[in-house]
Amino acid sequence: MLDSRPTREGEAIRRRRECESCGRRFTSFESPEKPRLFVVKRGAGREEFDREKLLSGMVTACHKRPVALEQLREAALFIERDLFDLCEDDVPSSEVGDRVMAALYSLDRVAYVRFASVYHEFEEPEQFAETVSLMLGKDKKDRSPKQMPRGLREPVTVGHNSRHK
Q1: Predicted local confidence at residue 9, as pLDDT
Q2: Number of domains observed in the structure of the chain
Q3: Of 8, 25, 29, 72, which is most buried, counting CB atoms within 10 Å of its CB?
Q4: Which of 91, 98, 53, 99 is nearest to 75 (CA)?
Protein backbone atom coordinates (compact mmCIF):
# COMPACT_ATOMS: atom_id res chain seq x y z
CA MET A 1 0.00 0.00 0.00
CA LEU A 2 1.41 3.37 -1.03
CA ASP A 3 -1.16 5.78 0.39
CA SER A 4 -4.28 5.67 2.54
CA ARG A 5 -6.64 8.56 3.27
CA PRO A 6 -10.26 9.14 4.27
CA THR A 7 -12.73 10.21 1.58
CA ARG A 8 -16.47 10.81 1.12
CA GLU A 9 -16.82 12.77 4.35
CA GLY A 10 -15.02 10.06 6.28
CA GLU A 11 -17.38 7.28 5.19
CA ALA A 12 -14.72 5.47 3.15
CA ILE A 13 -10.97 5.05 2.87
CA ARG A 14 -9.12 5.55 -0.40
CA ARG A 15 -6.06 3.32 -0.73
CA ARG A 16 -3.41 3.61 -3.42
CA ARG A 17 -1.80 0.22 -4.00
CA GLU A 18 0.85 -1.39 -6.14
CA CYS A 19 0.81 -4.94 -7.48
CA GLU A 20 3.84 -6.80 -6.11
CA SER A 21 4.24 -8.99 -9.19
CA CYS A 22 3.83 -6.49 -12.08
CA GLY A 23 4.32 -3.14 -10.34
CA ARG A 24 1.05 -1.72 -11.72
CA ARG A 25 -0.63 0.85 -9.44
CA PHE A 26 -4.33 1.01 -8.69
CA THR A 27 -6.78 2.66 -6.29
CA SER A 28 -9.29 0.91 -4.07
CA PHE A 29 -12.05 2.31 -1.89
CA GLU A 30 -13.05 0.63 1.33
CA SER A 31 -16.12 1.44 3.34
CA PRO A 32 -17.71 -0.28 6.33
CA GLU A 33 -20.70 -2.43 5.57
CA LYS A 34 -23.78 -0.70 6.89
CA PRO A 35 -26.33 -2.75 8.77
CA ARG A 36 -29.56 -3.25 6.89
CA LEU A 37 -32.77 -1.79 8.22
CA PHE A 38 -36.19 -2.89 7.03
CA VAL A 39 -39.45 -0.98 7.29
CA VAL A 40 -42.54 -3.04 8.02
CA LYS A 41 -45.43 -1.51 6.13
CA ARG A 42 -49.04 -1.31 7.32
CA GLY A 43 -50.10 -4.23 5.14
CA ALA A 44 -47.31 -6.37 6.64
CA GLY A 45 -45.10 -5.82 3.58
CA ARG A 46 -41.41 -5.24 4.20
CA GLU A 47 -38.87 -3.11 2.33
CA GLU A 48 -35.36 -1.90 2.96
CA PHE A 49 -35.11 1.58 4.47
CA ASP A 50 -34.26 4.19 1.83
CA ARG A 51 -33.19 7.65 2.99
CA GLU A 52 -33.72 9.04 -0.52
CA LYS A 53 -37.34 7.85 -0.50
CA LEU A 54 -37.83 9.47 2.90
CA LEU A 55 -36.26 12.71 1.64
CA SER A 56 -38.45 12.63 -1.47
CA GLY A 57 -41.60 12.49 0.67
CA MET A 58 -40.37 15.40 2.77
CA VAL A 59 -39.51 17.43 -0.35
CA THR A 60 -43.01 16.76 -1.72
CA ALA A 61 -44.60 17.96 1.53
CA CYS A 62 -42.46 21.12 1.40
CA HIS A 63 -43.18 21.91 -2.26
CA LYS A 64 -43.29 25.72 -2.73
CA ARG A 65 -42.60 26.24 0.99
CA PRO A 66 -39.66 28.22 2.43
CA VAL A 67 -37.70 25.15 3.55
CA ALA A 68 -34.13 24.68 2.33
CA LEU A 69 -33.23 21.33 0.80
CA GLU A 70 -30.24 21.19 3.15
CA GLN A 71 -32.60 21.34 6.16
CA LEU A 72 -34.53 18.39 4.76
CA ARG A 73 -31.34 16.44 4.08
CA GLU A 74 -30.18 17.07 7.66
CA ALA A 75 -33.55 15.93 8.99
CA ALA A 76 -33.54 12.78 6.82
CA LEU A 77 -30.02 11.93 7.96
CA PHE A 78 -31.01 12.44 11.60
CA ILE A 79 -34.08 10.23 11.16
CA GLU A 80 -31.98 7.51 9.54
CA ARG A 81 -29.40 7.60 12.33
CA ASP A 82 -32.13 7.62 14.96
CA LEU A 83 -33.75 4.53 13.42
CA PHE A 84 -30.43 2.68 13.21
CA ASP A 85 -29.80 3.59 16.86
CA LEU A 86 -32.85 1.52 17.77
CA CYS A 87 -30.67 -1.53 16.98
CA GLU A 88 -33.61 -3.35 15.41
CA ASP A 89 -33.61 -5.14 12.06
CA ASP A 90 -37.24 -4.20 11.42
CA VAL A 91 -39.04 -0.99 12.33
CA PRO A 92 -42.72 -0.28 11.78
CA SER A 93 -43.51 2.36 9.17
CA SER A 94 -45.18 4.33 11.98
CA GLU A 95 -41.72 4.83 13.58
CA VAL A 96 -40.51 6.42 10.36
CA GLY A 97 -43.67 8.45 9.78
CA ASP A 98 -43.76 9.82 13.33
CA ARG A 99 -40.16 11.00 13.03
CA VAL A 100 -40.88 12.66 9.68
CA MET A 101 -43.87 14.42 11.21
CA ALA A 102 -41.74 15.67 14.12
CA ALA A 103 -39.14 17.05 11.72
CA LEU A 104 -41.69 18.70 9.44
CA TYR A 105 -43.57 20.16 12.40
CA SER A 106 -40.50 22.09 13.45
CA LEU A 107 -39.52 23.09 9.90
CA ASP A 108 -42.85 24.15 8.39
CA ARG A 109 -46.35 23.72 9.78
CA VAL A 110 -48.02 23.71 6.35
CA ALA A 111 -45.70 20.92 5.19
CA TYR A 112 -46.52 19.09 8.42
CA VAL A 113 -50.27 19.23 7.67
CA ARG A 114 -49.68 18.17 4.05
CA PHE A 115 -47.63 15.16 5.17
CA ALA A 116 -50.14 14.30 7.92
CA SER A 117 -52.98 14.27 5.36
CA VAL A 118 -51.23 11.58 3.32
CA TYR A 119 -49.68 9.71 6.24
CA HIS A 120 -53.00 9.45 8.10
CA GLU A 121 -55.05 9.09 4.90
CA PHE A 122 -57.36 12.04 5.46
CA GLU A 123 -60.68 11.63 3.67
CA GLU A 124 -62.69 14.52 5.12
CA PRO A 125 -61.96 18.24 5.50
CA GLU A 126 -62.73 17.92 9.20
CA GLN A 127 -59.59 15.84 9.61
CA PHE A 128 -57.51 18.78 8.38
CA ALA A 129 -59.34 21.11 10.77
CA GLU A 130 -58.79 18.72 13.68
CA THR A 131 -55.08 18.44 12.93
CA VAL A 132 -54.67 22.22 12.74
CA SER A 133 -56.71 22.68 15.91
CA LEU A 134 -54.62 20.13 17.81
CA MET A 135 -51.45 21.70 16.43
CA LEU A 136 -52.49 25.20 17.52
CA GLY A 137 -53.51 23.93 20.97
CA LYS A 138 -50.19 22.15 21.34
CA ASP A 139 -48.31 25.36 20.55
CA LYS A 140 -49.74 26.89 23.71
CA LYS A 141 -48.42 24.11 25.93
CA ASP A 142 -44.86 23.96 27.22
CA ARG A 143 -43.27 20.55 26.61
CA SER A 144 -39.69 19.33 26.66
CA PRO A 145 -38.22 18.83 23.17
CA LYS A 146 -37.10 15.50 21.75
CA GLN A 147 -33.41 15.04 21.15
CA MET A 148 -33.18 16.39 17.61
CA PRO A 149 -30.56 18.40 15.76
CA ARG A 150 -30.48 22.19 15.84
CA GLY A 151 -33.54 23.55 14.06
CA LEU A 152 -35.64 20.46 14.80
CA ARG A 153 -36.22 20.89 18.52
CA GLU A 154 -40.00 20.71 18.87
CA PRO A 155 -41.93 17.59 19.86
CA VAL A 156 -45.01 16.39 18.05
CA THR A 157 -47.95 14.94 19.92
CA VAL A 158 -50.75 15.61 17.44
CA GLY A 159 -53.32 12.82 17.52
CA HIS A 160 -53.36 10.05 14.95
CA ASN A 161 -56.14 8.95 12.67
CA SER A 162 -57.77 5.88 14.19
CA ARG A 163 -56.99 3.78 11.08
CA HIS A 164 -53.25 4.27 11.58
CA LYS A 165 -52.99 2.75 15.05
Answers
A1: 67
A2: 2
A3: 72
A4: 99
